[in-house]
């Protein structure tokens, strides 16, 4: 029983981090119909930038994180302007491949600047152990849950009530109709990419705090694909539920069956669920006409 | 100079090569392929073999992604099925090379068809991620099913497996002929495939799958067929690689391989058989070129040795982005433009 509780807690905390990362995917997909394969590398960039500002330059951490966010927003705008904008209206395969190319480029830049050796992340996030009943959990992971929930809540409100959020949904629904209603598609894309990059930077900091500053951070991007697809690409509640499901699945298979299996079980479950619900749990079903 | 193509018989109309220029180029190419192994050194021969192997796989992937419109991120895993299939058949069952290669390709076709089943209900990004799942699942099976595959250890093929009628097939030059023969057969088969009912059905599914279903194409059957055909050639690449190298390890067939092959067909040209070959050649030659240039600078810039892999990776990314932004139809389109420019040269209007 204690093991079950412990596994549930650690599964849910991992799930919260997955949801946080998944949010970046959802954000970009919701506004521009692009699944960003470079999201993991944006995490990596965020982690290394914070490492650079706080550990290498010796800035106090609030300033370091703030600078990281500024640079991340800048990178997001750059990516949108020079990579994604020329491809508006191209087929899905081009969109997938261009973000894959981007991920390769970003990874190369990070490796060329900081080298492939793993570094220790500056310990400004409290990580002492907290007891929840019988389960033990690190303070940093609890913080990750809190941050994930705050961001998820903010984004839900953003998409529902704010002008920009509604514009994003309109563009995702029909670019031409949105253009003819006077929405600037370019500006909205730039905004959504910069927000997504900033979210990724926050996610990168949280992940790097747990796994250390290394290429492993971008591996989380790959692990989050089942989460986003499971919940449905355009659904924020889907990201939360998907994160929780995948996190728990990994924890339970890791704890009860064996370590190796926890990498592959999410993908098997994903395929099975997709066979029943092709647009994920909460994804919007696209009605196609000839 | 051609001023137009005027066919007077159906045979002429159906021909692959219409003009004498096209025929001359084909003869030149064939001549080059035949003379090449006698003049090239070992380095160039291995590069040519890599290009041939990659071309078979890229054509296979193009059948699925370029012609049928089903995005697959699992080709690396299917290649692993071909390679490990051939290796295990050779080692455990003691089959010779002429049996393992077709058997392993067929096995891969079957596995590909199984992982193609989700394509009936899934489209676009969701399908891409479902094939990514195939990649992860097969990777995991290979590294963890130790009793069959040897796990993370490399699988070494029996040397006797390469013996046919008492002749040992070994070395770069021998395999050059084998690989080129298979590559030529694959090219011919695929070029003809898209003139048949099946191939046209694939293209119809790519252009508009619902419309294709309405005009009587059995979507399930043809999508599975596309997955199977594509995987057959990808498995063929795997099986040939296994026999050529004599040693296989799972690291050669990860998601990065899948991405590399997708990059080949994007750069070469989606939905183009010749484009797949150009893309394969490009993606084999450019990294080799960069490595050579890097070695030149190694004496002047000592950090080069460490930076080189990242430069490779960065250029890989830049090349993909560059082609998608500047020339989405790839090298095949560039080559077509060059030809059409010179077709009327110097009197083009």
Order of helices and strands of chain B: HHHHHHHEEEHHHHEHHHH
What is the number of E strands of chain B? 4
Gross morphology of chain B is globular
Instruction: Summarize the largest interface: chains and residue counts.
Output: A-B, 45 and 48 residues
**Percent of residues in helices of chain B:** over 70%
Strand order of the largest sheet of chain A: 1-2
Please give the largest β-sheet of chain A.
2 strands, antiparallel
Individual helix count of chain A: 11
Task: Give the helices and strands, then pairings.
The complex is a heterodimer of chains A (290) and B (349).
Chain A: H1 2-32, H2 39-56, H3 61-84, H4 92-114, E1 129-132, E2 135-138, H5 139-161, H6 163-173, H7 175-180, H8 185-211, H9 216-231, H10 236-257, H11 265-276
Antiparallel strand pairs in A: 1-2
Chain B: H1 10-14, H2 20-39, H3 42-67, H4 75-92, H5 97-116, H6 124-144, H7 146-149, E1 155-156, E2 163-164, E3 167-168, H8 171-193, H9 197-207, H10 209-214, H11 219-245, E4 247-248, H12 255-268, H13 273-297, H14 304-326, H15 330-343
Antiparallel strand pairs in B: 1-4, 2-3
Helix pairs in contact in B: 3-8, 3-9, 3-11, 3-12, 3-13, 4-5, 4-6, 4-11, 5-11, 9-11, 12-13, 12-15, 13-14, 13-15
Explain the overall architecture.
Chain A is globular and about 55 Å long. The N and C termini of chain A lie far apart (55 Å). Chain A is built from eleven helices and two strands. The model of chain A has no long low-confidence stretch (mean pLDDT 83). The longest helix of chain A is centred in the N-terminal third of the chain and has 31 residues, at 2-32. Chain A has a two-stranded antiparallel sheet with strand order 1-2. Chain A has one domain (2-121, 131-218). By secondary structure, chain A is an all-alpha fold. The radius of gyration of chain B is 21 Å and the shape is globular. Chain B has one domain: ABC transporter involved in vitamin B12 uptake, BtuC (Orthogonal Bundle). In chain B, the strands form two sheets. Chain B has a two-stranded antiparallel ribbon with strand order 1-4. A two-stranded antiparallel ribbon of chain B has the order 2-3. Helix content of chain B is 74%, strand content 2%. Chain B contains 15 helices and four strands. In chain B, helix 13 runs antiparallel to helix 14. In chain B, a hairpin with a 2-residue loop joins strand 2 (163-164) and strand 3 (167-168). Chain B has helices spanning 10-14, 20-39, 42-67, 75-92, 97-116, 124-144, 146-149, 171-193, 197-207, 209-214, 219-245, 255-268, 273-297, 304-326, 330-343; strands at residues 155-156, 163-164, 167-168, 247-248.
